[in-house]
Write a structure and sequence with these properties.
alpha/beta, Metallo-beta-lactamase, Chain A, seven-stranded mixed sheet, binds zinc ion, 5 helices, about 280 residues
Amino acid sequence: MAKRPFSARIWGARGTLASLSGYNSRYGGNTACVEITCGKHRLIFDGGSGLRMMGDEIMAQRAMMSEDATPDPIHLFFTHCHYDHISALPFFGPFFDPTVTVNLWSGHLDGPDKTRKMVENYMKPPYFPVGPEVFSATLAYRDFEAGDELEPIPDVTVKTISLNHHDKCIGYRVEFDDRAICYMTDTTHIPGEPDQNIIEACRDADLMIYDATYTDEEFPQFWNFGHSTWQEGVRLAKAASAERLCLFHHRPSRTDDALDEIGKQARKEFRKCEVGREGLVIAV
Ligand SMILES: [Zn+2]
Ligand SMILES: [Zn+2]
């Protein structure tokens, strides 16, 4: 039987702070947002500034449907709630469509009702003028714990692990039709001690998206910032026997030319390596 489409699309590959500028327009300045298409369904990971355009596309597709049609529920997963991963939440078009149900998933915080609290604490005066009560979509807050296996839609399994990051962070492995795409961003490493959790979670994955904020040369200066390097991504992808690697969460100051150079260097060590950029689609 032919395998159904399974792909990742990057809507924002920048880390830390949205930073569109003349020197980085090819890779883009929007922060973390990745869409994973599984057959005719989609899952969205992180709500960085790239989420706004993702929402616009969903609304454009909605406009083509008849008014009384019920759109597919949306599933939005969060790695954690640092601002570069939630900043576009109030600007996600489907939140303002009363026919839509949006499932919000998170597992990095402790305590009850944590996903709802994450949204309410972000959208709150005086930091933001209105709360999530302005949304007209149906919101379903879905809490989980790191290590849980989720089945948001039929035939799709989402496995979760805890990453090594300030304030905790979740790594995801999405399995569909015998293939796997892993989204492992906002994690650091100890030089010379490969993260066994990540290796296990990415074992034989068809695609591994990894936190490549720094280079190994820069790392000693930033070892406690909670991020990793493209070289560590290559080492982990090899150890996990991953098929492809996508470098992600670029430093705000990293220029297009510097990212071109990182891609060139990385492909010498791992042939199927791409540098994440807005609009990039990787089908597995
Ligand atoms: Zn981040
Ligand atoms: Zn973070």
